[in-house]
């Protein structure tokens, strides 16, 4: 029976290399974030990180998210999850490992749902880091309920004509291609009305109005990496074959989105743990350092409570996430759909986001005024963490999914299945022979 919580030694050695590499080579880039934002700074960043990417390739860790026959390394979700835990410590790390959102998810989508031509044309350049991509689904009027999306694609001969209004299309303003969720049908089952179409960003009619400044990046300027674009699609014409999956992909937009989002949620949850661990390290270090009211903070019971709660929450999130990843690997190996892991995936999405938020919040609190300043990364981590409870589906939607699935295991029962008088009557009957002679009241 396999019930093993250990990482195999060869892979652990890779992880150990990653830990040192991220700490020594990538995290130092963080404090120069303002430098990298300008177009010239972006070029400098690419020059500095090019040799780092080479090192990652030499280690055999580049673009590890796809199966080998699709150009990746076939690591599976558990190994990828362990990698993302390390990469999550620094926002720059995933791109240096060829594994950054949304490109990794989009490459995965094209791998599982694209035609061979689409894989050659867009997936391979994405894996090689030669092009950037965006997943453009949310609209100002529809997000958590995607059946309300209105952006449409109408077939006109050998072309699609796309019209609509999207926002929060992350990375669109620096992307080469946009994967756009569009309404293509009028089926009575709303989920079958949507398809995904690949739109090169420079297609006439793609009007990027702005990158929307956010709590995470209030000073963000349109065109800088990491923006969330508002886009008008105005009579955008693309070839018919750009629909993901070709003819067979029409009406399959949501089914394909699930394939993309499942692994993505594992990666998110593990990256959040990387962030949580960074905040937790600061929390513990401060507890041992700061003296106030007669002792160091580590000796105050309330602070011990934060440390114990944070540790327990993080450990629970880690085990939940790795178990979800393991289940997905089992399903994949059996040729089954990830939807059979929807409880596990839903749980880690809301639980992981909550843990991230809690741990950073406590780390800020223990630092007092220092925690509120930009002298520490905690304030920016906190602002970024708030979004985790919203993107890739808000907490509430995942809780609805989890509760619905869990409730399928139950039936209404009157009286309760554990109603003692009912069970006692049944037990008296069951053991009547043995109880013969005993006087028992009901
Ligand atoms: C940083 C960031 C990056 C993003 N990147 C992308 C991207 O790259 N591409 C993309 O397409 N989208 C992206 N999004 C959008 C994101 O996916 C949506 O914000 C999300 O799906 C929620 O949709 P909404 O914002 O329209 O909220 P709404 O649908 O308006 O929901 C608002 C709130 O209503 C509540 N709610 C909703 N449904 C239920 C329910 N059934 N029960 C109880 N309460 C409910 C929840 O609290 C929810 O937060 C991003 C968002 C953020 C914050």
UniProtKB/TrEMBL annotation:
Keyword Lyase recorded: no
Gene3D superfamilies xref list: Acyl-CoA dehydrogenase/oxidase, N-terminal domain, Butyryl-CoA Dehydrogenase, subunit A, domain 2, Butyryl-CoA Dehydrogenase, subunit A, domain 3
Listed GO biological process terms: fatty acid beta-oxidation using acyl-CoA dehydrogenase
Gene source species: freshwater metagenome
Lineage, highest ranks first: unclassified sequences, metagenomes, ecological metagenomes
Keyword check for Oxidoreductase: yes
Cofactor(s) it depends on: FAD
InterPro entries: Acyl-CoA_dehydrogenase, Acyl-CoA_Oxase/DH_mid-dom, Acyl-CoA_Oxase/DH_mid-dom_sf, AcylCo_DH-like_C, AcylCo_DH/oxidase_C, AcylCoA_DH/ox_N, AcylCoA_DH/ox_N_sf, AcylCoA_DH/oxidase_NM_dom_sf
Domain annotation Acyl-CoA dehydrogenase/oxidase N-terminal: ranges: 11-130
Protein name from the UniProt record: Unannotated protein
């Amino acid at each position: 029976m396999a019930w093993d919580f250990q990482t195999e030694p060869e892979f652990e050695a890779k992880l150990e290399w990653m830990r040192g590499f991220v700490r020594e080579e990538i995290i130092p880039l963080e404090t120069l974030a303002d430098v990298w934002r300008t177009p010239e700074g972006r070029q400098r960043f690419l020059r500095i990180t090019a040799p780092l990417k080479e090192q990652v390739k030499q280690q055999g860790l580049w673009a590890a998210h796809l199966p080998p026959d699709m150009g990746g390394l076939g690591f599976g979700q558990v190994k990828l999850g362990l990698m993302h835990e390390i990469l999550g410590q620094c926002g720059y790390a995933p791109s240096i490992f060829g594994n950054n959102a949304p490109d990794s998810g989009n490459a995965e989508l094209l791998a599982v749902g694209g035609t061979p031509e689409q894989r050659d044309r867009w997936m391979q350049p994405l894996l090689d880091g030669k092009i950037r991509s965006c997943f453009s689904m949310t609209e100002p009027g529809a997000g958590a309920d995607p059946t309300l999306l209105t952006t449409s694609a109408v077939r006109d001969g050998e072309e699609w004509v796309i019209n609509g209004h999207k926002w929060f299309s992350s990375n669109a303003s620096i992307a080469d291609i946009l994967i756009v969720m569009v309404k293509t049908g009028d089926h009575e089952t709303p989920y079958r009305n949507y398809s995904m179409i690949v739109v090169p960003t420079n297609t006439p009619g793609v009007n990027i109005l702005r990158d929307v400044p956010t709590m995470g990046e209030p000073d963000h300027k349109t065109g800088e990496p990491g923006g969330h674009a508002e886009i008008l699609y105005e009579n955008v014409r693309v070839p018919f074959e750009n629909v993901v999956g070709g003819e067979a992909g029409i009406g399959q937009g949501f089914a394909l989105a699930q394939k993309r989002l499942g692994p993505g949620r594992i990666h998110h949850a593990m990256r959040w743990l990387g962030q949580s661990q960074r905040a937790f390290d600061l929390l513990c270090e401060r507890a041992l350092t700061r003296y106030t009211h007669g002792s160091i903070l580590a000796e105050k019971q309330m602070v011990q409570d934060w440390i114990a709660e944070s540790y327990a929450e993080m450990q629970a999130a880690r085990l939940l996430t790795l178990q979800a990843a393991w289940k997905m690997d089992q399903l994949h190996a059996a040729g089954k759909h990830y939807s059979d892991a929807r409880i596990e995936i839903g749980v880690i999405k809301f639980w992981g986001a909550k843990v991230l938020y809690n741990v950073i919040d406590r780390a800020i609190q223990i630092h007092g005024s220092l925690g509120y300043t930009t002298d520490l990364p905690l304030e920016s981590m906190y602002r970024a963490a708030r979004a985790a409870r919203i993107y890739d589906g808000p907490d509430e939607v995942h809780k609805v999914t989890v509760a619905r699935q869990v409730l399928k295991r139950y039936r209404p029962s009157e009286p309760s299945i554990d109603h003692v008088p009912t069970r006692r009557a049944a037990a008296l009957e069951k053991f009547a022979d043995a109880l013969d002679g005993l006087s028992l009241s009901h």
